[in-house]
Amino acid sequence: MSVSKRTLLPIAVTMGDACGIGPETIAKLFRSAQASGCFVLGDVGVMRRAVRLTGGGWVVAEIDEPQAVVEAPPNVLPVLQAQTLPADLLDAPLGTIDARAGAAAARCIEQAVALALRGAVSAIVTAPVHKEALAAAGVGFPGHTELLQSLSTQPGGVPPPVRMMLANDQLRTVLVTIHQSLRSAIDAVTFDAVLGTLRIAHRAAAGWGMVVPRIAVAGLNPHAGEGGLFGDEEITIIAPAIVAARAEGIDARGPYAPDTVFMRARHALGHPGEFDIVVAMTHDQGLIPVKYLGVEHGVNVTLGLPFVRTSPDHGTAFDIAGTGVADASSLAAALTMARRLTST
What we know:
By secondary structure, this protein is an alpha/beta fold. It folds into two domains: 1-161 and 305-344, 3-Layer(aba) Sandwich (Isopropylmalate Dehydrogenase), CATH 3.40.718; 169-293, Isopropylmalate Dehydrogenase (3-Layer(aba) Sandwich). The chain is 36% helix and 16% strand. The chain has helices at residues 3-6, 22-29, 44-53, 99-117, 131-136, 144-151, 182-188, 191-204, 233-247, 258-265, 283-292, 329-342, and strands at 11-14, 38-42, 59-63, 76-81, 123-126, 163-167, 172-175, 215-218, 252-256, 277-280, 299-303, 308-312. Strands 3-4-2-1-5-12-11-6-7-10-8-9 form a twelve-stranded mixed β-sheet, with helices on both faces. Helix 2 (22-29) links the parallel strand 1 (11-14) and strand 2 (38-42). The chain is globular, with a radius of gyration of 20 Å.
């Protein structure tokens, strides 16, 4: 599908965990012109409750197909009712881990991916899910990234290599490992994993207009191993992967000390960053710096999928679910990023 045709398609926003703040942030987002051409894939009843919790004044209307959003009048939040959701979903208490909400969140994601794979939507923006709720529902994936990868795999085929990127206007980080224990993540930092991450980050950069991005690679150990004094993974694994990537025309550099590379890469007023992307070895190593700059600005992007998928960088925030005070800024940033990636 050409870019021009893709940008004319609607964007699907999945409801997320019905017990969390996802529906409320969606209800706030759809009060702005930014949500024009978007629809919610979720539950009509849950979204009506979210509209009430966030001040009311809008009509939630069920649509039959994604393209029906073009006919939606002003002050209407269009919802494509997801199928096979738990009949008693609204009975799941707000602010709690509930298997019904986990099951519903998974069903919404599955159906959104089906729409994306058949070319009915230009992108998917996912509201937060709760990993324990997914597990309680018997969903065998720890989060969005792994579930999306599985749903994008052809029957009998090889799963597409995917990576998580967290980005804002100042910093972009791509992770070699994601949702696993730190102990197992260290073992998962292999030559192939690092080289694969560099390849995915390099290819994906074309989505935001960088033909040859400058990629900094963080070390795994303090001071990037200090020449082997604090661990030799930089010498035996990471540096060889960088050499192999550079032989393929990828502008990868490092490994650099993890405690300073993010500062060097940050693009701020009066401080142009030295790098366009930082490849981090583990989940927290890469996400803490971006989230410290403000979760309201961060966007989670899954790189390597056959469609565009973005998400806010915060979670379900059960502590404020149902209060109507949740901030929709990160969800708005995720939608902005999705539009940017579908138009380049």
